[in-house]
Write a structure and sequence with these properties.
Elements lengths: L9 E7 L3 H12 L6 E7 L7 H7 L4 E4 L5 H12 L4 E5 L3 E3 L3 H11 L3 E10 L6 E3 L29 E2 L7 E5 H7 L11 H11 L3 E12 L10 H18 L2 H25 L3 H16 L11
Parallel strand pairs: 1-2, 1-4, 2-3, 6-10
Antiparallel strand pairs: 4-9, 5-10, 6-7, 8-10
């Protein structure tokens, strides 16, 4: 396809960490997709073994960037973003699979709306075809610091086939225009894992852009293959970043309400749960996430940016 207004160059960025077989499957999926004006970048987050050969075998034109250290989700994506040359950038998890029309459907949103910051497609579970994972996000609750995906675990009967704005993009597949991204800035790296895409969406919103969900585009997701469904790492970063997100993105009185809820509901509930289930590692990870925020009370929004 020629590089013109209808088929702009799209830079696909994905991050790999000790999961080369999964990333190879993504590259094979990209190779068979119906949009060809692509630049494909894989950022390897200091995997134990160099996966470059396996990636180039799957997608010969791929650009592999090996980071000397594990920069996390945000840091890895930022490396890819800075190397990308496309008019549009499409950040995807390495545990996803493309479907026909995915990229053209997302690009169409930018032609229809001038205020697009980020657009995400509909998500189905890879191992449960026809079951929705994501059809948009609800706003993070100011009391709990938690939110949920619209349509999650529902059979797709077309009930979420109307697109439009949503609270947050899905970090597993986010498309944005280069010019807008340069105005907003890179993904905040302080999160490392979890909540960074929510914070990034708030950054786009503060610049006057909106977040869109596009059901005409579909992607499949092999959920939680990197960190595990019940990993200690997940417990730590979800706890730590739940508090951090609220500190960075809500008004002072909303933060006060959240902290009261967290202190008198979340902490006792989670502590008791981990004790009763004898999950000592998760208990330590939970408290480590809480204590990190106490030790870093001096962090302001500006110093949290990277």
């Amino acid at each position: 396809m020629p590089n013109n207004v209808h088929t702009p160059l799209v830079s696909i960025v994905t991050v790999n960490y000790n999961n080369s077989a999964v990333t190879v499957a993504l590259l094979e999926s990209i190779a068979s997709n119906d949009y060809k004006n692509l630049e494909v970048i894989v950022v390897d987050n200091a995997s134990a073994e160099d996966p470059t050969d396996s990636f180039t075998n799957a997608y010969p034109a791929v650009k592999v960037i090996r980071s000397a250290t594990n920069k996390g989700f945000a840091g890895g994506n930022n490396i890819g973003i800075q190397a990308a040359k496309g008019d549009f950038l499409f950040l995807v998890n390495n545990d996803t699979a493309f479907t026909p029309g995915l990229i053209p459907g997302l690009l169409a949103i930018f032609e229809q709306h001038a205020d697009v910051g980020i657009v995400s497609p509909k998500f189905h579970y890879f191992f449960h075809p026809g079951i929705i994972e994501y059809a948009g996000y609800r706003q993070v609750d100011v009391f709990t610091g938690r939110n949920s995906m619209i349509g999650c675990k529902e059979e797709d009967r077309g009930q979420y086939n109307t697109g439009g704005t949503t609270a947050y993009a899905h970090g597993g597949a986010m498309m944005m225009k280069r010019a807008v991204l340069e105005e907003v800035g890179l993904m905040p790296e302080i999160y490392f894992l979890y909540y960074e895409e929510f914070d990034w969406c708030e950054m786009f919103r503060r610049k006057g852009y909106r977040i869109y969900y596009e059901p005409a585009s579909l992607i499949y997701h092999k959920e939680s293959m990197t960190t595990g469904k019940n990993s200690v790492l997940k417990t730590y970063y979800l706890t730590r970043n739940r508090i951090l997100f609220m500190r960075r993105n809500v008004r002072w009185y909303q933060l006060a309400l959240f902290l009261l809820f967290f202190a008198f509901v979340t902490i006792p509930k989670n502590t008791l749960r981990y004790v009763l289930k004898r999950e000592k590692d998760h208990l330590r990870a939970f408290w480590k996430g809480v204590i990190w925020n106490i030790k870093n009370l001096n962090l302001n929004k500006e110093s949290c940016a990277v």
